[in-house]
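User: I'm curious whether this sequence folds into something compact or stays loose and floppy. Could you predict its structure so I can see for myself?
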Amino acid sequence: MLALVHADHVESRLMPAMHLAAGGYMVMDPTSSELFTDPMWTWPADLPPLAPQLTAREHDILRQIGRNQTVRQTARVLGIAMKTVENAQGHLFSKLGVHNRAAALAKAYALGLLQPTDAVPDPGLS
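Assistant: Here's the prediction. I'll summarize afterward.
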């Protein structure tokens, strides 16, 4: 970083800043500091929602929902029991705070958990 300090201000401004920097403190122009401090004043309601942590199985179920697969088709494709699909789907809905498959898809897309390319059927899974 480059800075110019008028000769009359070396003792009053530059020397204290150099002592702070030598002590491990960060020194910056007050107008630049807003870039760092403004985010500290963000209210939690203004922050984007955090995506829930999904298990690998829940991600698999979500992708199958995106491919418009039924519970029976999902069970066949993933090689698991229909009851396992239903249970995982219930956990998925709970984590997303939704009650049906359409709402789960909408929420998953909004949170970035699912991309449009995830909804394209995999030719090897048909």
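Summary: Residues 8-38 form one domain. The two ends are 59 Å apart (CA to CA).
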